[in-house]
Design goal:
Elements (H helix, E strand, L loop, with lengths): L2 H28 L5 H15 L8 H19 L2 H8 L5 E3 L18 H10 L17 H7 L2 E7 L4 H4 L15 E7 L3 H7 L2 H9 L6 E2 L7 E2 L2 E2 L1 H12 L7 H10 L11 H27 L1
Parallel strand pairs: 1-2, 2-3, 3-4
Antiparallel strand pairs: 5-6
This protein binds zinc ion.
Zinc ion (ZN) binds next to loops.
Length: 297
């Protein structure tokens, strides 16, 4: 696309987004009995006739510009009943994500003890999570208790999650809207994941009959020049050759809950909960310090 066409495309895009916003505002303001989406279609048809649009919409533009917004919007609005209709059952696991306000018992509310909570609150004053707060517009604790079995809480550096948190999956009486909690290994991006599944870590896990549940974001740092990172790929291939039990986390957790001698999903002892939260807080502090040192150097 030549430069002037690109400028025109950007101007049109900004103009259309502004017009869409204006239409939404008008419908709301005048309480018009037209669905917003229908009004947008009409706007699009009118714009197509009136505007001097001669732009080729390539598949790349649809994929890179339009699709992410649509998928994100759809994900934000997904109804838990739609989930059941589509997948044939309720989600077994919920994992709170980053800064979502509807996160349940998140941020400082992950911690026990007023000192730890106060310290965490001082470090992250902007964070407030309200999924468990009755009366808040973000409250969904009742749905969480009725319809999901497990929620992930603390994440750790070590590969043997069960060794760090032997009581999992556990109930936490101070956080009654969650049936059962579990921990996971921190493989949050490509670098951490690749580091976690180093040969010696995996060998030790196997030797000690350990159990690892790992969480990640596959959109973060797994690609190199459009291909899977080669180190990650070779470590994953080596891992897959081992005689492990590779199943989704919900299956591992069901097994841990039902196995003889396991906790059976009972209440966690206060001391284990406290040691988990202290270890987690210390690891976060260390990460923060590393990030700050990294910025200075
Ligand atoms: Zn996330």
């Amino acid at each position: 696309m030549p430069a002037d066409t690109t400028t025109l495309a950007i101007e049109l895009f900004v103009g259309l987004v502004a017009a869409a916003g204006l239409v939404g505002w008008l419908i709301h303001r005048l309480s018009l009995p037209i669905p917003y989406t229908v009004a947008l279609v009409v706007l699009g048809v009118v714009a197509g006739v009136v505007l001097p649009i001669d732009i080729e919409v390539s598949p790349e533009i649809v994929l890179l510009v339009l699709l992410p917004g649509l998928v994100f919007e759809a994900a934000l609005r997904i109804d838990i009943d739609d989930f059941r209709r589509t997948f044939g059952g309720d989600p077994v696991i919920n994992a709170n994500h980053s800064m979502n306000t509807e996160n349940i018992y998140w941020g400082r509310d992950r911690l026990d003890g007023s000192v730890l909570r106060w310290l965490y609150g001082r470090m992250t004053p902007w964070e407030r999570f309200r999924g468990h707060e009755e009366g808040s517009e973000w409250f969904w604790g009742d749905v969480c208790r009725q319809r999901t079995r497990y929620v992930r809480n603390f994440t750790f550096d070590g590969i043997d999650t069960l060794k760090i948190n032997p009581a999992m999956p556990y109930h936490d009486p101070r956080r009654p809207y969650v049936n059962l909690w579990f921990s996971s290994a921190d493989g949050s991006d490509g670098r951490r994941f690749t580091e976690l599944i180093r040969e010696e870590n995996v060998a030790r896990l196997e030797r000690e009959n350990g159990c690892c549940i790992v969480y990640t974001h596959f959109a973060k740092g797994f690609l190199q020049d459009g291909r899977p990172d080669p180190v990650w790929e070779s470590r994953m291939r080596a891992l897959a050759k081992r005689p492990g039990w590779f199943v989704p986390a919900s299956q591992v957790l069901d097994h841990l809950r039902e196995r003889p001698g396991g906790g059976g999903g009972g209440a966690i002892r206060w001391s284990e909960r406290m040691s988990l939260s202290m270890r987690w807080a210390l690891e976060r502090l260390r990460d923060r310090r590393r990030a700050q040192n990294g910025k200075r150097s």
